[in-house]
Amino acid sequence: SQKIEQNSEALNIQEGKTATLTCNYTNYSPAYLQWYRQDPGRGPVFLLLIRENEKEKRKERLKVTFDTTLKQSLFHITASQPADSATYLCAPSSGGSYIPTFGRGTSLIVHP
Amino acid sequence: NAGVTQTPKFQVLKTGQSMTLQCAQDMNHNSMYWYRQDPGMGLRLIYYSASEGTTDKGEVPNGYNVSRLNKREFSLRLESAAPSQTSVYFCASIFRDSSYNEQFFGPGTRLTVL
User: Fold this and answer.
1) Nearest residue on chain B to A89, judged by CA atoms?
2) How many helices (H) and strands (E) does chain B have?
3) How many angstroms separate the CA atoms of A77 and A60, rounded?
4) Spatial separation of the C-alpha atoms in residues A35 and A27, rounded to whole Å
5) Of A42, A100, A103, the CB nearest to B103
């Protein structure tokens, strides 16, 4: 069965450093992968999408990589700020279904 | 635009009671989804509606029914609530074939079944 793994332990980093979150998947060949941010008590909010034929995608301080050989996506936040503290969810999806499967998310805590 | 709205925000039920969670979107999206989120379990798909007039089961459909009332509204019904259905429920919508296929989520309904 399809399996998506994100670090269950919270990632604690100092303000200004780069945060790197990992998403691994097995038994799956997604056409694209999305990353969402979720704040406590709120619904997830879309951040970025990367397609299977793309190696890297950037948006402001965010960078996502997608390695279909390793079956892994990395999500980077550069120059992190306390306001970046949240849970980040990865969501791979096959092309035609429009049904992403969500990982459990990794909590990021940025300390001032 | 209000985006995706959900009602109610909070609800407490007794075992065996029924209720309907309402969801509406004003973005002219064609697909709508219901998820539940439990601690340590992530988001799990209950039902989805790819387009008006169609509904399909997701990963955890047992104990739930849905109705796609029109293009805007997608409701989730618990016919006989059980404590295992205590969860946070999120509705989401998507405009298929958009550049990013991003899901827009509502604020959630926090349901407790006693």
Assistant:
1) B42
2) 0, 11
3) 9
4) 19
5) A100
Kindly report the backbone phi and psi dihedral angles of residue B27, in degrees, each rounded to the nearest multiple of 5, phi listed first. -105, 10
How far CA A105 is from CA of A11, A86, A102, B45, B106, in Å, comes to 11, 10, 8, 15, 18
Tokens 């998506």 correspond to A4
Strand A106-111, strand B42-49: pairing: unpaired
Å from B96 to nearest chain A CA?
7
Q: pLDDT value at position B113?
A: 97
Of A46, A89, A104, the CB nearest to B41: A104
Residue B10's contacts (CB-CB under 8 Å, 6 or more residues apart) are B109, B110, B111
Q: How confident is the model at residue B98 (pLDDT cuts 50, 70, 90)?
A: low
The string of pLDDT tens digits covering residues A28-54 is: 889 899 999 999 999 999 999 999 999
> How far apart are the two ends of chain B, measured CA to CA in Å?
36
